[in-house]
From TrEMBL:
Ranges of residues in domain HTH hxlR-type: 9-108
Statement: the UniProt record of this protein carries the keyword Transcription: yes
SUPFAM superfamilies named among the record's database cross-references: Winged helix' DNA-binding domain
Protein name: HTH hxlR-type domain-containing protein
Keyword Transcription: yes
Length: 145
């Protein structure tokens, strides 16, 4: 595999994969919004360009964060789902939401903050486990259609 990393720093290396404008957005859309097809992603409010989306999905797949499969009921449609490696980013996304609440909300008062965010803050570990379990159940259901 071609080396895509600038250096040996773990933070920099993580950012080499996830630090672009779109990778975490795609992962967030999958985890929290249930997006799974190319069309789902292109119709989202973030308006990711199709060429960029294609590159990001391939890159996330290459690094084992996302996997691609065919819908059992429609072999023409690719579905993208998070792997366990992708799901392990759940705590990172939760922390980004909380960081935004306390540091970005003053600049963007229209932030879409979940009404259960206080529960999440009180027990982040349980919240992450619940989110991951719900996603895995969702993934099983779409793969067995």
């Amino acid at each position: 595999m071609k080396n895509h990393f600038r250096c040996k720093c773990p933070i920099t290396s993580s950012l080499d994969i996830l630090g672009d404008k779109w990778s975490l957005v795609v992962i967030k859309q999958m985890l929290f919004e249930g997006k799974k097809t190319f069309k789902d992603f292109t119709e989202s409010q973030e308006s990711i360009a199709t060429n960029i989306l294609s590159v990001r999905l391939k890159m996330l797949e290459k690094f084992g964060i996302v996997e691609k499969a065919k819908l059992p009921t429609n072999k023409k449609t690719n579905i993208y789902t998070l792997t366990d490696k992708g799901l392990s980013l759940t705590p990172v996304l939760i922390e980004l939401v909380l960081w935004s609440k306390y540091n970005i909300q003053e600049f963007n008062p229209d932030l879409n903050l979940d009404h259960d965010l206080e529960k999440v803050e009180k027990n982040k570990k349980k919240a992450c486990q619940t989110i991951v379990e719900k996603y895995k159940e969702f993934k099983r259901s779409i793969l067995s259609q």
